[in-house]
Amino acid sequence: MKEKVTESLSFGTDGVRAEYGEELERAAYALGRTVHGRVVLGRDTRVSGERLAQTFAQGASDAGAQVEYAGIMPTAGVAYLTKSRGADFGAVISASHNPPEYNGIKIFSSEGEKLSEQAEAEFNAALRVQFEQKNVPLKMRADIQGAREEYINFLCGAGRELKGMKIALDCANGAASVIAPQVFARLGADTVTVSANIGGLDINDGCGALHIDTLKRRCPGEFDIYFAFDGDADRVMALSDKGEVMDGDLIMYTIAALTMQNGGRVSQVVGTVMSNGGTEEALKKLGVKFLRAKVGDKYVKRMMDECGAEIGGEQSGHIILSKYAGTGDGILTAAVLAGLLKESGRAASEFSYPVYPQFNESVKTADKEKAAGAHIAALTKEWEERGVRVLVRPSGTEPKIRVMTECKNAALAKAALAQLKDALL
Questions:
Q1: Is residue 318 within 8 Å of residue 298, measured between CB atoms?
Q2: DSSP labels for 34-101?
Q3: Where are the beta strands (DSSP E) in 145-188?
Q4: Quick one: pLDDT at residue 34?
Q5: pLDDT of 351-391, one tens digit each?
Q6: What is the pLDDT of residue 181?
Q7: What's residue 33's pLDDT?
Q8: Cα separations (Å) of 334 from 186, 243, 283?
Q9: Rounded to whole angstroms, how far apart are CA atoms 199 and 210?
Q10: Which of 18, 126, 201, 327 has its CA 20 to 30 A from that of 43?
C-alpha cells in the first residue's frame, strides 16, 4: 500500500512534534524509512509512544535498518547509547515538555548529537515522499533492562557519593521516572520522588521542570536541593535548600563556581541570547568569560566546540556538560551539581546573584515573518539605545512570536515589551 505524505509537519533541530494523530503516524514511518544501519530507539511515557515506536521501527525495517529498542528512556539516554553502542542513528519518540496529547520524533547522529542542517533537510524532505509500505518483518531487538542499566551506570560514574544529602526529585511522570530515582539511590542520597507515574496520561501535567514553583509544596520538609525534569529529562530546573528557583543560568553559574572552588578550571561558559545579564555579570566576577549563542542547544553545543567550553546551556534548563556528553542531559546535570555541592560542603542557596528584570511573552500569529520586519527592527534599535536588551524571534514549533525584554530599569523593559507586542498584533 502507498503511504500518504505529511502535509504540515516539518523536521527541524528537535525533529517533528505535533498532537498525536494520523499525520504523526505517517511522519514516524517516513522518518524510519530514512535511517539506515543500526538504530537505537527509545521513547518517553506518552500513551501514543509505543504505537509510534512500532511505526518508526517498521519504517526502519522496510529500509533495511536494524533497531535496538530501549523502551522508556530519557532523550539523553538514547543519545548516550547511540554513541556507546556504535549505532548509526538514535531516535526518540517524545514531545519533550509538551502536554500528554502531543508526541514527536527526534533523531541523533552516530555521535549522539543533534543532526547537521544538511541531515535535517534530508529528513524534512522525507516527510514529503510517498513511500510504498513493504511490511518487512520487524528487525527490532528489545534490550530495555540492559539499556537502562548501562545508562544508569554512566550517570553514577559522572556523579559522586551523596550520603547525607536529602534530595527531592520530580520526574514529570516522564522518562526520568525509570532512571533518576535509581541513580540518586545508588549514589547514596536520601531521596523523595514525586510525579513518577509511567502511564503517560499525566506527563508534564502540573509537574516537572515547567512547574518548578509547585515542587516545594509537593515535597514538604527540608531538602538540600530539589530537582525537576521535563517529560524526556533533557532539561532540569532546581530549587535551592531555601526553595529559591535555580534556572539553567543559575545552575551553570553554580557548577562553574563549585568547579573552580574544588580546584578545577573554568575559563568560559556558553549561554544564549536569552540568558540574563546578571548571569554574565556574576560569571565575570569569577573571571569567567560568558558567550551567547542563538537559542537552541544545538547552537550552544556548536559554540562550545568552537571555543572549548565544557559548560553551556539555556535558561530553560538544557545544560550541556561536554566533559561527559554531547547533548543536554537533565539527570546528568543534577548528579554532577549534587556531587559538587556535597564535595564543597556548601549550600545551593549560597550561589544566588542579582538578576536583571527580564520579561518574556509570546504573541500568537499566523505570520511569523513579522518578527524580521523593518518596523520591529526599528523599534528594537530604539529600545536598545535606551538600554533595553530586546529579542524578537519566531517560535520553532508553534504559530507564535516570542518577545523578550531585559533592563536594569524594570519599567523600561515593561514599556518596551508592551510596544513590541502591539506592533506584532
A1: no
A2: H--SEEEEEE-S-TTHHHHHHHHHHHHHHTT-EEEEEEE--HHHHHHHHHHTT-SEEEEE--TTS-TT
A3: 166-170
A4: 97
A5: 999 999 999 999 998 889 899 999 999 999 999 999 999 99
A6: 98
A7: 97
A8: 14, 16, 20
A9: 19
A10: 126
Residue 194 backbone phi and psi in degrees, to 5: -125, 165
Over residues 252-299, the pLDDT tens digits come to: 999 999 999 999 999 999 999 999 999 999 999 999 999 999 988 999
**Higher-confidence position of 135 and 408:** 408
Strand order of the sheet with strand 268-272? Answer: 289-293, 268-272, 311-313, 319-321
Mean pLDDT, rounded, of the chain: 95
| Residues annotated as catalytic (active site), given as ranges | 96
Render pLDDT for 9-21 as a digit per residue (tens, 0 to 9): 999 888 999 999 9
Domains and CATH numbers, the chain: 16-142 (3.40.120.10), 148-351 (3.40.120.10), 358-424 (3.30.310.50)
Q: How far apart are CA 115 and CA 92, in angstroms?
A: 13
Which of 269, 381, 349 is CA-nearest to residue 315?
269
Which neighbouring-strand residues pair with 292?
A: 271
Question: Quick check: 173 and 196 in contact, CB under 8 A?
Answer: yes
Residue with cell 535555580: 246
